[in-house]
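Summary: Need help interpreting a holo structure output

Steps to reproduce:
1. Submit the protein chain below together with the SMILES for flavin-adenine dinucleotide.
2. Request a joint structure prediction with the ligand placed.
3. Inspect the structure token block that comes back.

Expected: a single structure record containing both the chain and the bound molecule.
Actual: see attached output.

Input attached:
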Amino acid sequence: MHAIVAGAGLSGLVAAARLAEAGHEVTVFEERPEAGGRVRSTHEDGFTFDRGYQVLFTGYPAVQRELDLDALDIGRFVPGATLARPNHRSTLADPLRAPSTLVDTVLNRDVTLRDKLNTFRLQRELASRSFESLLDRDGKEIESYLDARGFSREYVKRFVAPFYGGITLDRSLSTAANVFEYTYKALSEGAIGLPAEGIGAIPAQLADRARAAGATIECERGVTALDSDDDGVTVEAGGETLTADAAVVATDPQTAEALTGVSTPDGAKSCVTQHFALPERRDLRTGRRIVLNSADDRPNTVSPTSDAQPAYAPDGQQLFVANFVGQQARSDAELAAEVRGAMGDWFPETTFDELELRHTDRVAFAQFPQPPGYRADLPVPTAPEGNVVLAGDYTRWCSIQGSMESGKIAADAVA
Ligand SMILES: Cc1cc2nc3c(=O)[nH]c(=O)nc-3n(C[C@H](O)[C@H](O)[C@H](O)COP(=O)(O)OP(=O)(O)OC[C@H]3O[C@@H](n4cnc5c(N)ncnc54)[C@H](O)[C@@H]3O)c2cc1C
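--- attached output ---
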């Protein structure tokens, strides 16, 4: 069988690798100059800049199944977070996995004892459930879900809003609670990390795997039309017409809808990410934990990125990544001034005059909105007519996990 895959994001690459490994002929068409889709990195003067603030949750089942994590040489953040507001920082750790932080966490006055107990209870409850069963639970928004479980308003405001607001790109926490439960379970069971070569090493590894199994990946050849009949599929790509037995449409949701006529989710969650360098490394005592802005969203988070993954900065230098949720009207320089101001407020014992803005990403489409009930509106992979199957996070949920899983499901359906 010959299968064409449109789109070389994580979903298309997993589909291509699996189909090629099953012995099928596979051709991938990607409209951009390189594979990776939304997961990309650039390298400049010894720094690595991921496109938008991205991290890998090693606990995701598809990540463990599809990737060689050892080869990615993951640098890990320490579980938990540093909660910051002007002239105040506190550590919220996972004492089960980092026992040395037990004292910090118990003494943390940003979080009540009831919140700590609720956290343990939630962790235990989610550990006893399968990932898949969590996705099928749908109902509340994250905020009302936590409210119903007895978490305090302060805990939600100081920890959950910046942390999960950063993951869902929605600090109002109106995303479906199943996204919270899934990521919470993955965080409890794995690490948050970054590959030594940047987040783009993930699709690069998948592309190598697909090629090693015999797939061809043709970049700068977008698919412009797709037709299917009893004999197979006809695809127009890069001005050429080709035929194949089957096709996987693994593009962004809007393009997939245009190519197949199947309705896909509308809307976009955006972010602006700024990458900053310090010429000499300073120990801010974040303990390799992400710094959450527990007062407001300017910026939402600052990540001590090169502390967790030293390969992201040249020796002796340091890289911080600040993330703003949503599109921002302010200029790069204005946003950078806000980041310097916030860091100065959080770490008054040091100055950030030397914090140099190296790179800004304005990502208009990072995720599709996932309000309660969103799963009922997602397209099923086999919805297109004929031998055409959909892949992409928009068929599952928006994450590295959702996109990789969708690639496997599409490959199984085609095979
Ligand atoms: C800034 C940002 C931060 C994120 N952070 C995280 C995170 O920390 N953790 C996490 O788990 N997830 C994160 N995500 C989500 C995750 O990256 C996505 O869910 C995932 O990469 C989507 O993969 P995909 O294959 O479904 O789609 P895409 O990556 O969108 O791939 C679609 C591909 O199709 C190509 N294409 C489009 N049209 C055509 C055409 N006509 N012909 C051929 N090719 C075409 C595109 O160029 C692209 O390569 C983040 C996303 C962004 C953008």
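--- end attachment ---

Reviewer comment: The longest strand covers residues 356-367. The longest helix spans residues 153-168.
Status: needs-info
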